[in-house]
Amino acid sequence: MKYLTRSLWVLVAAALISCGGKDEKKEKENIQLGNYEKKEVAKPEASEPEGDLVDMSNKGVGPVENVDLPDEIDMAMAKEGEEIYNSKCTACHKPTKKFIGPAPIGVLERRSPEWVMNMILNPEEMIIKDPVAKQLLAEFNGAPMANQNLKREEARKILEYFRTLKETN
Question: Does 154 reside within a domain?
Fold first, then answer.
């Protein structure tokens, strides 16, 4: 019986000792898990708004080195470009307002035709190597332009469609 009583006391003492430190342990765990110091995350420097990024000499990075635009818009080509744009681009771009990506209205007043076509044809490399494309990526919350795997002729038709988009004030 003495053996049983001693064993029982040892078990009770062990249980009390092991339970006694749990409150402190839980408090420490709570501190570690829920009471982190608030740290300000450094935000990237604010870039200029998309409309202010004007660089007509930048041709971008990609296969298009030169685009000659005639004075007169080819309306048949623009119509085909509008159809391509509506089927491939409107998930992220609206013709006259910012959406997930920038609005193409007036883009040829801010970018060279070569830059626009290279962005359409080669968006992955553009956002890595082109400074304007990098700024646009930051401005539009890091949403990169999807490569639609368009042919050069299709990109040229979209460019012609962009020429028809005019501000209405």
Answer: yes
